[in-house]
Specification:
By secondary structure, the protein is an alpha/beta fold. It has three domains: 200 residues, 3-Layer(bba) Sandwich (FAD/NAD(P)-binding domain), CATH 3.50.50.60; 110 residues, FAD/NAD(P)-binding domain, CATH 3.50.50; 110 residues, Enolase-like, domain 1, CATH 3.30.390.30. The chain is built from 13 helices and 22 strands. Strands 1, 2, 3, 4, 5, 6 and 17 form a seven-stranded mixed sheet that branches. Helix 1 runs parallel beside helix 8, helix 3 runs antiparallel to helix 4 and helix 3 packs across helix 6. The N and C termini lie far apart (76 Å).
Length: 458
């Protein structure tokens, strides 16, 4: 019989924590999970799920407009923000219940309280002390807002999901995928939207062509994109929120939303006092088995600051549970993770950017195409679809896939399987296209782009 109350005590019932708790319990571990917020973590409550619902909502105005080219007359269409908000909240509540049921069915004890690490084998939650052979920290991340004058007048993406009224004018600050997605959401819902980013071009880390093409498409849709711009101070006035930029100019809006990064949510958890090493940004430092500097304390998901994606946290949880309680030797593979940005139009990417591929492989072939989708020959929209493949010339293996266009996430998921299978450009070439689709372009691109030196000489 164990000397501890539990074999595993999980702190945080987000996607990673819930999966780790369920799988560990299913493999025979006596497990508890503590959560003082809604079940499902960021993704379910203030992330992937509600954001995708808002993206769907924001597309309808464009769809109504496009319908005219196909003979439809759509009159009197208008958005009821409160209805959207209520329906979203109902769905999120349903999912919270699903997560609770999953834990119950797996035999995991759910403790509705904030948990703090006391020592290597002890946790305190809700005034009660629990002991465990292993402690797993899966508390995720939390939005950051820069410390500028008037920061109290700004919101983060968390609050954006619960606005009582939809603003008429909004400023979105940031250049990551959350900022890009919310700029598209607000713009699509009819909000006069400005996006500010302090750098030369947003979406740092993505392929340069993708970044440039998306900026062009967003501007065509009406988003006021301003690069090399940042807010120095915010003042609340009768006319609205006045943002003074670093160059001295001002912008007035009804809402200012910061999406300038998220930090690991480790403050106040007692980790440092327990001897757990943290990185400068608060992330828990772990080895490839998700074990911290204290051997009995583990961590996974956004709190370890590797790849902050829900499916990655779930995959890490599976590795942890099967290795710890089924004596397996799985290793997490972070390469070639399919990724989508639900911008407007959307982005899908797998593998390396062109810049990364040239650094890693040297000689690469790059295939690109840009076109108006068949739908827009009647809709009248000038939106362009962009596709790009990057191939290691020595092996013919496709090492980079990038697209901008409708259903990018759906297409990218399938391409991700091809990457894991080691698909070569010849495999793409030998695949029959599905006609007429936009995605068939991926199997019909035959001529690589000229080398950069040749392009520069043209």
């Amino acid at each position: 019989m164990s000397d501890y109350d539990y074999d595993l005590f999980v702190i945080g019932a987000g996607s990673g924590g819930v999966r780790a708790a369920r799988m560990s319990a299913g493999l025979g571990a006596k497990t508890a999970v503590a959560e003082d917020w809604n079940l499902g973590g960021t993704c379910v409550n203030v992330g992937c799920v509600p954001k995708k619902l808002f993206v769907y909502a924001s597309h309808f105005a464009e769809e109504f407009h496009d319908a005219g080219g196909f003979g439809w007359t759509v009159e009197g269409a208008r958005l009821n923000w409160k209805t959207l908000l209520e329906n979203k909240n109902t769905e999120i509540g349903r999912l919270n219940g699903v997560y609770e049921k999953l834990l119950q069915n797996a035999g995991v004890e759910l403790i509705r309280a904030r948990a703090v690490v006391v020592d290597a084998h002890t946790v305190e939650a809700g005034g009660v002390t629990y002991t465990a052979e292993r402690i797993l920290v899966a508390v995720g991340g939390w939005p950051s807002v820069p410390d500028i004058p008037g920061k109290e007048h700004a919101i983060s993406s968390n609050e954006a999901f619960y606005l009582e009224e939809l603003p008429k004018r909004a400023i979105v600050v940031g250049g990551g995928y959350i900022a890009v997605e919310f700029a598209g959401i607000f713009n699509g819902l009819g909000v006069e939207t400005t996006q500010l980013y302090r750098g030369e071009l947003f979406l740092r880390g993505f392929d340069h062509d993708v970044r440039a093409v998306l900026a062009e498409e967003m501007r065509k849709k009406g988003v006021d994109l301003r690069f090399k711009s940042n807010i120095a101070a915010i003042e609340k006035t009768d006319a609205g929120l006045v943002a003074t930029l670093e160059d001295g100019s001002t912008l007035t809006a009804d809402l200012i939303m910061y999406a300038t990064g998220r930090h690991p949510n480790t403050a106040g958890l007692g980790l440092e006092d327990a001897g757990v090493d943290l990185a400068r940004n608060g992330a828990i430092v772990v080895n490839e088995d998700f074990q911290s500097s204290v051997p009995s304390i583990y961590a996974l998901g956004d709190v370890i600051d590797r790849v902050a994606l829900t499916p990655v946290a779930i995959a890490e949880a599976m590795v942890f549970a099967h290795n710890t309680y089924n004596q397996e030797a799985r290793k997490m593979d972070y390469r070639d993770i399919p990724t989508a940005v639900f911008s407007q139009p959307g982005i899908g990417t797998v593998g390396l950017t062109e810049e990364q591929a040239r650094d890693e492989y040297g000689a690469v072939d790059v295939y690109k195409t840009s076109f108006r989708a068949l739908k827009h020959t009647l809709s009248g929209s000038q939106e362009k679809t962009f596709y790009k493949l990057i191939v290691d010339r020595a092996t013919d293996r496709v090492v980079g896939f990038h697209m901008i266009g409708p259903d990018a996430g759906e297409v990218t998921q399938a391409i991700g399987v091809a990457f894991k299978a080691g698909a070569k450009k010849a495999d793409f070439d030998h695949t029959i296209g599905v006609h007429p689709t936009s995605a068939e372009e991926f199997v019909t691109m035959r001529s690589p782009e000229p080398e950069p030196q040749a392009r520069a000489a043209e």
